[in-house]
Design brief:
The chain has 389 residues and is of the alpha/beta class. It is built from 18 helices and seven strands. The chain has two domains: 1-116 and 167-239 and 318-389, 3-Layer(aba) Sandwich (Rossmann fold), CATH 3.40.50; 240-310, no CATH class.
Length: 389
């Protein structure tokens, strides 16, 4: 059995995602599609609008064969950690031969060329210079690569999806993985596009429309099963809880979070002492250097207890595979293929108790994230559940 993998959030699953899965079936040459999906919290530093099992079910009902959970330690992390952690899990599965990702431009060869340049002393010095000029890390790094390698296609560095695709390729190189990248041209609204379109709107636009006068327009942009579940989305108290956690943590703990550096903990803690509104605190904290997504991730990492030193250990430790959903048809073959992985499957509490120390610590964060999601949404979701369709 050959898997084509997709690293995703599906927050929520929409027509663009369904189109991507259809294209993978046409282009990959693989037997099955395996999705590695973020759980209860996302890379933007936000709580997912639907629980992970519901989102995994949407994926299987609309083209995927099996969905695994991306550990929260990697899911709520900057692009390079998000990609590296995901590729580490996928590389542990011998049956995973390709990794598909959405992009605005570029072919496989373009992404591999752009991801390959070595980061020598010249690169590091130029990167430091651009960071001192106030650029964000992602932008500074992209501009450095373009300046030192003018032969590369600049469009690969100009959109979030392309940049994430490059990080996947860098992770494949750095881990000497046999996985082959498979870029799929995106269809419809861009990553940050907040305008609803006829049929292919971004997840950002769909989230913004939930519960608004435009809610009915979502229907043409998502599969029917997804639309029905989106009608159940209700407000939660995540923003208040995140602010409370920030004030309770103190400067030292905030400084240990994955994305925090250069004294940002002081700015954030000082703001928490005088600002009671989450969105206003973000407005005060964001700058040219420190993007909105980065600030939100720091707040979420603090809320979930995700710290830099732990994440570094997890990146290079044997972890685990947690199945969220899979097709009933061919279930034995799917699980058999995962059974060949170098990371163990976690399906029940007794499996968790057998994990190595690093894997158990990482999984404990997933359990904490699941529990916090339950409290914020006033419901109980069993973290050891598996949806079979």
């Amino acid at each position: 059995m050959k898997f084509c993998a997709v690293i995703c959030e599906y927050n929520p699953f929409h027509n663009g995602h369904k189109y991507q899965l259809e294209q993978i079936k046409r282009e990959s040459g693989c037997d099955k599609i395996l999705c590695l999906m973020s759980g209860s919290f996302t890379q933007r530093g936000e709580i997912a609008i639907l629980d992970k099992f519901t989102r995994a079910r949407h994926a299987v009902q609309n083209g995927a064969d099996i969905v695994l959970e991306l550990p929260a330690a990697f899911a709520v992390a900057p692009a390079e950690v998000f990609a590296s952690g995901a590729v580490a899990l996928l590389s542990s599965i011998p049956a995973v031969e390709k990794l598909a990702f959405g992009c605005e431009s570029g072919k496989k060869e373009d992404f591999l060329r752009a991801a390959a340049p070595t980061e020598d002393e010249t690169f590091r010095n130029l990167l430091k210079k651009k960071l001192k000029e106030g650029e964000s890390y992602v932008k500074a790094r992209s501009e450095t690569v373009i300046k030192l390698h003018p032969e590369l296609d600049k469009s690969l560095f100009l959109s979030p999806n392309n940049i994430l695709g490059l990080e996947y390729c860098r992770a494949i190189f750095s881990r000497n993985s046999k996985i082959e990248p498979l870029p799929i041209l995106r269809k419809g609204g861009g990553y940050a596009d907040r305008e609803l379109h006829e049929n292919f709107s971004s997840a950002s636009a769909i989230r913004a429309a939930i519960g608004s006068p435009s809610h009915h327009l979502i229907k043409k942009n998502v599969p029917e099963d997804v639309f029905q579940d989106l009608s159940l989305v209700r407000p939660n108290q995540a923003k208040t809880a995140i602010l409370c956690a920030l004030l309770s943590a103190g400067r030292e703990k905030i400084a240990k979070t994955t994305d925090c550096s250069e004294g940002l903990e002081n700015k954030l803690f000082d703001l928490a002492q005088k600002e009671t509104d989450y969105d206003k605190l973000l407005e005060e904290a964001v700058s040219k250097r420190y993007t909105l997504s980065r600030i939100k991730r720091i707040l979420m990492q603090n809320f979930l207890g995700i710290y830099r030193g732990d994440v570094k250990r997890f990146l290079f430790s044997p972890l685990y595979l947690k199945v969220l959903a899979l097709k009933k048809e061919g279930r034995r073959e799917l699980l058999s293929a995962l059974g060949e992985a170098s990371f163990p499957l976690v399906a029940r509490k007794s499996d968790f108790e057998k994990l190595s120390s690093e894997a158990a610590e990482c999984f404990q964060i997933d359990l904490r994230a699941n529990g916090l999601f339950n409290i914020l949404n006033n419901r109980f979701i069993n973290p050891f559940e598996t949806v079979i369709l």
